[in-house]
């Protein structure tokens, strides 16, 4: 019997009787991070990193039963040892290490190998079996250092200010938005935000995170306040009436998908910044190598291509179908 199994409800540990990031309600759910494709409502009990607890409560409801643990702290379920280790994806994200006797599996959830300056930096965890995401599992995805990207964003904002335009950046309310705010907090006199961004930012500030204070955009916010300032919104705000209030504005999209020509045009963006909270091709390869895994399971993204590459390079690998990788939610958050 495998220590972890892939079922129609999610990644299951039969001996420990718990699931990792289940996509159906279960009794015990161990959560890698609070994005909606990995943390879904309806389960009876949740286990996650301490920093994910308030985010889960914000997203799944304040009355959920959730236990938070520190990185490296061990929990035992029916003799199975569980510990959480930094994934570097977003605040509170973790890789789940599962061990029984001398067998060790690691479910990575989502991760990136470059330290973003705010979430805990990725740490490879030695194991025999590694379950890896493959969101950007093709050689064409090769990120520049984030400082280069932020320098480019700063230059773009400066040019917009010189032209009397509002700079509107789109990025997910959990992860991308915090990186933008942390690294661009002094870029304009004021930073305005969509409700989805504002609510998450306020909650994190209340829990001690060093993030700038935002101004929430409401239907009553006067048009004049946006000129020469920065606005941050979720990807779902693109091509909606919400955008019209900023005219004249320039729209920038922050995403790893901007690496591929044509994505910026399809998003009707004026600028595309290649900024991702996922590992690029080299990051995925370095993570796999650092674990020393004897077997790799590839999930969500270019999982087939990445598994084939590993196989061709002497690493046993197998693609697994999951329900991860669905666009991280924004539509249900208030504007």
Number of domains: 2
Please report the number of helical segments: 7
Mean pLDDT: 94
The CATH topology of the largest domain is given as: Metallo-beta-lactamase, Chain A
Number of strands: 19
Helix-strand string: EEEEEHEEEEEEHEHEHEEEHEHEHE
Under the CATH scheme, the architecture of the largest domain is 4-Layer Sandwich
Q: Can you tell me the residue ranges where pLDDT is under 50 for at least 5 consecutive residues?
A: 329-335
The CATH superfamily of the largest domain turns out to be Ribonuclease Z/Hydroxyacylglutathione hydrolase-like
The order of strands across the largest sheet is 7-8-9-10-11-18-19
Terminal Cα span: 48 Å
Q: Which percent range describes the beta-strand content?
A: 15-25%
* Main sheet record: 7 strands, mixed
> What is the gyration radius calculated from CA atoms?
20 Å
């Amino acid at each position: 019997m495998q220590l972890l199994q892939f079922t129609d409800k999610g990644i299951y540990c039969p001996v420990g009787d718990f699931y990792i990031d289940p996509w159906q309600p279960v009794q015990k759910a161990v959560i890698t991070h609070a994005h909606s494709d990995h943390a879904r409502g309806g389960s009876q009990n949740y286990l996650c990193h301490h920093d994910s607890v308030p985010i889960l409560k914000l997203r799944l409801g304040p009355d959920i039963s959730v236990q938070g643990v520190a990185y490296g702290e061990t929990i035992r379920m029916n003799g199975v040892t569980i510990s959480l280790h930094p994934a570097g994806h977003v605040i509170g994200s973790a890789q789940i290490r599962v061990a029984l006797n001398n067998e060790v599996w690691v479910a990575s959830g989502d991760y990136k190998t470059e330290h973003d300056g705010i979430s805990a930096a990725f740490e490879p965890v030695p194991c025999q079996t590694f379950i890896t995401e493959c969101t950007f599992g093709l050689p064409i995805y090769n990120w520049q250092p984030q400082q280069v990207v932020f320098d480019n964003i700063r230059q773009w904002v400066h040019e917009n200010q010189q032209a009397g335009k509002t700079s509107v950046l789109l990025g997910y309310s959990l992860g991308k938005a915090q990186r933008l705010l942390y690294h661009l907090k002094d870029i304009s006199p004021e930073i305005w935000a969509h409700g989805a961004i504002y609510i998450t930012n306020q909650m994190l500030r209340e829990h001690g995170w060093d993030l700038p204070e935002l101004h929430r955009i409401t239907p009553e916010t006067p048009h004049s306040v946006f000129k020469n300032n920065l606005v941050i919104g979720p990807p779902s705000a693109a091509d909606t009436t919400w955008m019209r209030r900023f005219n004249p504005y320039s729209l920038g999209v922050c995403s790893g998908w901007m690496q591929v020509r044509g994505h910026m045009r399809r998003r009707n963006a004026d600028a595309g910044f290649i900024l991702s909270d996922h590992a690029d091709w080299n990051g995925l390869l370095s993570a796999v190598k650092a674990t020393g895994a004897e077997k790799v399971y590839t999930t969500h993204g270019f999982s087939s291509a990445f598994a084939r590459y590993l196989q061709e390079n002497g690493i046993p690998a197998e693609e697994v179908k999951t329900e991860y990788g669905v666009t991280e939610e924004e539509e249900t958050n208030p504007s």
